[in-house]
User: What shape does this take?
Amino acid sequence: MTQVFKFGGASIQDAAAIRRVGELLARFRARPLIVVVSAMGKTTNALETLLAAARAGETEEYRDRLETLRQEHLTTVEALFGDRAGPVTERVEALITELDQLHRRHASRERPFHYDQTVCYGELLSTTIISAWLDEAGMATEWLDARDLVVTDDCHQAANVDWQATVERVRGLATDDDKIRVTQGFIGGTTEGVSTTLGREGSDFSAAILAHCLDAEEVTIWKDVPGLFNADPRRFDNAVQLERISYDEAIELAWHGAKVIHPKTLGPLQQKSIPLTVRSFEDLEAPPSTIGRDTRFDTQTPSLVLLEEQTLLEIRSRDFAFMDEPRQHDILGRLVEAGLHASLIDAGAMRLSLCLDDGHPDRLEPLVSSLCADYAVVRHEDLTLLTVRHADDALLAALSAGRDSLAERRNADTAQRLFPSTQCQGTWHIPL
Assistant: This one.
């Protein structure tokens, strides 16, 4: 059965990393194998900056950034291929020229359209180099353009997949030959051949789309960490790896802000019970983490999520009326219109509390202004939200000790408490 591997930007950031990917793939002889690849390193960020310069008409900055992008990729090609770099260099140069031409052509178009026509070149460049390197290393490959495989609508920067059309195009990839199929994550195309992008976590989603269409045996996402953890190791000094969790548990953690696999990636896999494994490309012997249907391990270890830079809005009716369903409907409708997600929602008889991320002031401030026009709103800033899955009372009490809870919510599986950020600095410890 087909295997799908996905490599992110960190795993292919330079020539040394690409060589390591080649060595890794040489150890996995199972076929058919589809390899989905992101842009190299921070290339997508560089392309977004290039886009901004193109749209602002900053010609000198645009030319400088385009040349930097060109040189970074050609340096990688030279380091990999040496005096045999000619054919790959020509392909990279051709892609850079196409990118430049598209910026000139679309700089006056609406930004989402312009974005999708140009930012996709990060993945086109990386897969061109990697496919050529795998051939050089003795592994036969076939380079595939994901814009011809993943069919979407024209909702640019967040395109929706046309599943029926995509299945029809992808089916033929599951062949019995010895080739590795190399394609891009994050990008797709309309039936008219217009480039699109899939939005947040798009490369992981691409791997899931292909696996779903091919009824794959497994998806493996290769990262610089051995797997998924029950808390952020940078904030919790005794975080432990979760070797097995269910789709539902992973989705719950993602919903509450954990840096795990995005729900839109898990959905297509869950529909067909295709497991997703997270493995370390730095330590192939390290035990991986697997997300699948088995729920037996979900409650064995509590999982914790810290979200910083949070704002709490306490909203009340000006006439001291109940915070009933029509008022909640109005307030939550405004939240939807603002394009914001509430990390915590808590309702009382005369109050509705919303915990929102400070990271989108362009959306948050208009929402607050709108609510203040019709409601009494008290705002608390600089807060940290702690979410704990499968916590007992003793664990919650220990984590909350010395901290003032401004809002709380709890159900059978999840507890949330909101604290002043000044009380949440430094490293946390999970009481055992």
Notes: The mean pLDDT is 95. The two ends are 42 Å apart (CA to CA).
